[in-house]
Design a protein that fits this description.
Number of helices: 12
Strand order of the largest sheet: 1-2
Helix content: 55-70%
CATH topology of the largest domain: Fumarase C, Chain A, domain 2
Number of strands: 4
Strand content: under 5%
Structural class: mainly alpha
CATH superfamily of the largest domain: Fumarase/aspartase (Central domain)
Order of helices and strands: HHHHHHEEHEHEHHHH
Mean pLDDT: 92
Distance between the termini: 52 Å
CATH architecture of the largest domain: Up-down Bundle
Low-confidence stretches: 1-5
CATH class of the largest domain: Mainly Alpha
């Protein structure tokens, strides 16, 4: 996507055009577009903060709010059209806002940097996703505890070193996993206060020159506190690293449960039978019933681990404040959300339908 002739948010000092190869290399719109609602929510709140400081008139703020609401509706209706020069979600939304409301759109970015804007968007977006994942974890726990109660009288061999050791209840094994997933749930709940700090108002690195009311902004956007230091606020991505770790731990537990069920569903063990809805067959050997859902759960664990490792390597050696390397924070975060959310839903369904 070339942006020849397109006005950039950061283009004030530049006279020449960016190489199209660099345009494509620099863009993040193809993945950060999923934060469109968080970006608009943050902008609507920021416009109100500018109104409180007297930078916007009431009419201007209302115009911006209605325009941003129209942009949101276009995204929701899948009618938003990306244009050359829309290098990221912030640029795309601001460009479209300008088309809808005119020159007043340029006042929205007064005192704001993309550095504090993107940090705010990420926290807003991730906060909602963590809440959703906690719900999926509870569904897995409910499926495990329901089966444990339903199958309370079922006995099985317990294993160490994959060798028969002592007899146990099937319920005892199921509940061991329920407790692991309960720990995963608690970790995410304890993580929420560390996400729920507002960076907006930190500017590029040295604060907001118009001294917008950050405490009011935090309240408006549902944050429990503000980041206490502007350098920290714009450059902190510890919350991404911690989130990826929590996702990785949960995927370990999913993978181990999947491994147990793969073994126990084999003909050699025959303890459980996977529902047809979560199995596949063989084109050559019609007698086979393959536990593909479980094998995919086991395999996707490595995907989340890889994202965490890649992000940590990109993050480890950066100088203070924002650096473009930090654009590499989003794809592993998005992928971990998608992978873990899907895996938790499949896990709950597999457990609920086991025979």
């Amino acid at each position: 996507m070339s942006a020849s002739g397109a006005k950039k948010l950061w283009g004030g000092r530049f006279s020449g055009e960016t190489d199209p190869l660099m345009e494509a290399f620099n863009e993040s719109i193809h993945f950060d577009r999923r934060m469109y609602a968080a970006d608009i929510q943050g902008s609507q709140a920021y416009a109100k903060a500018l109104l409180k400081k007297g930078i916007l008139t009431s009419e201007e703020q209302q115009t911006l709010d209605k325009g941003l609401q129209s942009v949101l509706q276009e995204w929701q209706a899948n009618t938003f059209e990306l244009r050359p020069g829309d290098e990221d979600i912030h640029t795309a939304n601001e460009r479209r806002l300008g088309e809808l409301v005119g020159a007043v759109a340029g006042k929205l970015h007064t005192g704001r940097s993309r550095n504090d804007q993107v940090a705010t968007d990420m926290r807003l977006w991730l906060r909602d996703e963590v809440t959703r994942m906690i719900g999926f974890l509870r569904q897995v726990i409910e499926a495990l505890t329901f089966r444990a109660e339903q199958d309370i009288d079922v006995l099985m061999p317990g294993y160490t070193h994959l060798q028969r050791a002592q007899p146990i209840r099937w319920s005892h094994l199921l509940l061991s996993y329920a407790f692991w997933f309960q720990q995963d749930t608690m970790r995410l709940e304890q993580f929420m206060p560390r996400i729920n700090q507002l960076p907006l108002g930190s500017g590029a690195l040295a604060g907001n020159p118009f001294q917008v009311d950050r405490e009011w902004l935090a309240q408006e956007l549902g944050f429990s506190s503000v980041t206490p230091n502007s350098l920290y606020g714009t450059s902190d991505r510890d919350f991404v690293a911690e989130f990826l770790f929590h996702c990785s731990m949960t995927m370990i537990h999913i993978s181990r449960l999947a491994e147990d069920l793969i073994i126990y569903s084999s003909a050699e063990f025959g303890f459980v039978q996977l529902a047809d809805a979560y199995s596949t067959g063989s084109s050559l050997m019609p007698q086979k019933k393959n536990p593909d859902s479980l094998e995919l759960l086991r395999g996707k664990c490595g995907r989340v681990f890889g994202g965490m490792s890649g992000f940590m390597m990109a993050y480890k050696g950066l100088p203070s404040t924002y650096n473009k390397d930090m654009q590499e924070d989003k794809e592993p975060m998005f992928d971990a959300v998608d992978t873990l959310s899907g895996s938790l839903q499949i896990t709950a369904a597999v457990v609920a339908t086991l025979k």
